[in-house]
Write a structure and sequence with these properties.
The chain is of the alpha+beta class. Helices cover about 50% and strands about 15% of the residues. The longest helix is centred in the middle third of the chain and has 34 residues.
């Protein structure tokens, strides 16, 4: 088996590293010291640089101005974004664009994808439902009326919704079918209420009251929402991996310089063992991430496995949620009081890690989902 990334995927990583090289994780006020959101908008200059490097169209076809790469390439770029806590809706934007490209009408693709690739049009996705615990598609109803669709319901914790142009909203028809509507932020009947994430970034609660969506802007393809949900979860794992790797590097540098009894604390066995355990966590997060991303791409090509791809995504999210939590907790412990200093970026990584741990479900939720899959698909 060959686990080597392709030349195109490696080129995407190099381009991402160049774009993120000057990003400062502490470039906005600390979430620990800010009562509301740390900023009103995401990092627009960084967004422009991503667009200029053709990274916003990474997963789109050439006909839409993209590079035609896959979910693995997207996760490689997201890993680099996680390292520096990049304040951009890169995951939601690219995942929603992939859903439109794969399942949307030609009219919808033509309206959204060229602008999405250039970065002049920003997409996000509502994936947390009403409470963050129930399936997101059950939080909104969609009914057919006069050749269009009418949406009613509530979606919570939508990332950067106030600054996006279009929002991908899952809904149900009442007949057991999940659909995906692309709704403009300015649509009549759509109201946004301010929310703030654990990391200090802006979220929004979406209240949809009779929002009218043209038939061409609603995706009815079976499995379209489920694939988008899986891609969002896998991308969250990639962000968590990049964040965790930066935190472990930061911890190694600090413990290598901090001395006790005339020796660097990194040379103490208790410190070294804890750091080694966190390294193992990161390697497990990495291998399960690439398995999940590969299954998402392979499923498109018809390749199967003993479980549906949702099983691989669940395993990756379990490791990402528990692993990133252990990494930042150990880092705080080994930094001592310095780790909580708001002039030092570690506390930001801790806040972002908690957000990523719970985003799209904590480990326990995915363990339950994995159990249901194993019960429905006996491996024997």
């Amino acid at each position: 088996m060959d686990f080597t990334f392709t030349e195109e995927q490696q080129a995407a990583v190099e381009a991402a590293r160049a774009v993120f090289a000057d990003v400062a994780p502490d470039g906005v006020p600390s979430p620990a010291l800010t009562p509301g959101a740390v900023a009103d908008d995401f990092d627009r200059p960084l967004w422009a640089r991503l667009a200029g490097s053709d990274l916003l169209g990474l997963v789109l076809a050439e006909e839409h101005g993209g590079a035609g790469l896959d979910a693995i390439a997207l996760c490689l770029v997201l890993r680099e974004a996680g390292r520096v806590l990049a304040r951009v809706p890169l995951l939601e934007h690219c995942a929603a664009a992939m859903a439109v490209q794969a399942h949307g009408s030609p009219e919808l693709a033509a309206a959204l994808l060229p602008g999405a690739a250039r970065g002049t049009l920003v997409l996000t996705a509502a994936a947390h439902g009403r409470s963050g615990h129930d399936p997101a598609e059950l939080a909104v109803t969609a009914r057919h009326e006069d050749g269009a669709w009418i949406l009613d319901g509530t979606q919570t914790a939508v990332p950067w919704a106030q600054n996006a142009d279009w929002i991908a909203v899952p809904a149900h028809t009442g007949e057991g079918d999940a659909v995906l509507a692309l709704v403009p932020r300015t649509a009549e009947g759509l109201a946004l209420a301010e929310q703030v994430s654990t990391s200090g970034e802006r979220l929004a609660e979406l209240a949809l009251d009779g929002v009218r969506v043209e038939a061409a802007h609603l995706i009815e393809t079976p499995g379209a929402w489920e694939r988008l949900r899986q891609l969002l979860a896998t991308g969250t794992c990639a962000l968590a991996l990049g964040l965790g790797e930066s935190v472990l590097t930061m911890t190694g540098q600090y413990t290598g310089k901090r001395e006790q009894f005339g020796f660097p604390v990194a040379t103490f066995q208790a410190v070294a063992v804890q750091a080694a355990d966190r390294y193992i966590d990161l390697r497990a997060m990495e291998v399960t991430l690439w398995q999940a991303a590969w299954r998402l791409d392979a499923a498109t090509g018809g390749a199967g496995g003993p479980l549906p791809s949702s099983g691989d995504v669940a395993v990756a999210k379990i490791w990402a949620a528990e692993g990133v939590r252990r990494v930042v907790q150990t880092a705080q412990h080994l930094h001592g009081g310095f780790g909580a200093d708001t002039d030092y970026p570690l506390h930001r990584y801790h806040a972002w890690a908690k957000q990523l741990e719970l985003q799209l479900g904590p480990a326990a939720a995915h363990e339950e989902a994995l159990g249901d899959l194993l019960a429905a698909h006996p491996l024997g």
